[in-house]
């Protein structure tokens, strides 16, 4: 028997087809009346075969614009148009998709502002708008997405502040990726209340102020990447640090200052530790040698003083060590020749004296 | 001193990558094309057809470093190794951010490459292996 159709969904799909150029002729050859629309490429339907629940294309050239009639696919739960060379705005008619859980429009040339109506999609779990040409601010209305797990807006031309209330009612967020924009202002303190957060990527923006202390006390956080901003202030001390799952700690190219605290020494999963190009003072911490999974230490271009810790030579898993552009003194410990896995080492532009140990030739 | 090392903003090609893997010069060999990390190469850095030598003004694949542009119509430097992304950048999905070739190779990165070759050429031996 022929599955029951609904003309509304069919009309919406046909208009979608009409609005894209389909340069490779895939829709032209596959989306035809000779087959039910539920079997068309990229289309999935509910169990009754009547309603479209998914429209999903990835890494396939479509070109053209997104049809506003997609808003008529009232049972749509997944809209994925990733790397499909689309242009134009995001249709505001998407606010007629109350069941939408996944919205992925990454890697296109979509433009305009991010529509505030996206805040009406309260069942949304994943919002990917990254790598497009969106400009303007992040809509405050996104704060209403209380089921959101992934927010990815990186690699656009967004400006203005991150709305301070953006994370006040999004307890399920596990990934925040807002890097490579022109965002200004402070990091919202409410980030620290996201108990399920695993990844915080805010790098390559114009953010200022200090890091909210609560960010350094998050049980599931695996990556902190705030490189290349205008952030300032010290890193919280030992008593405030609790990041047991942290693997990537990247605070480079900011204006952080003060001594490097011992708090990160409790991050036993730490793989990358980068504080390069800041204003950190004091000594290079010897506790870095006690981190079992640490492979890369980048502390270049700071105001660090004292001697190179000989303890680092015991950390044979180290692959990269950059202490250049500081005010370190003393000699290079000959024990560094033990670091047989080392791929990069630099002590350039310090106040180091003495000779280069012969053992360095073992590297 | 601390902020003197900020690099100029790099503009990446960002067009859709093709199948070709980008190439880098000796100065940038071993570094992640997205973050300069030197550890855990995880994925080849694929470039668009134009930057791989299929067209456009980016030079041919075998000559041009996609990070600093060295080798594009210049003497001396040339691409010698495949480009890659590191593990952390793959995890943060930077490997999907379009073609990573730098289209406005800044003085900072170019100077780094020039210094590298200048230092090496003083010893004589390295350059001869590039012949």
From TrEMBL, chain B:
Give the record's family classification: Belongs to the PHF5 family.
- Identify the Pfam families for this entry: PHF5
Protein name per its UniProtKB record: Os11g0495400 protein
State the GO CC annotations. precatalytic spliceosome; U2 snRNP
InterPro entries assigned to the protein according to its UniProt record, in alphabetical order: PHF5 (IPR005345)
Q: Which GO terms describe its biological process?
A: mRNA splicing, via spliceosome
PANTHER family registered for this protein in UniProt: PHD FINGER-LIKE DOMAIN-CONTAINING PROTEIN 5A (PTHR13120)
Q: Which organism is it from?
A: Oryza sativa subsp. japonica
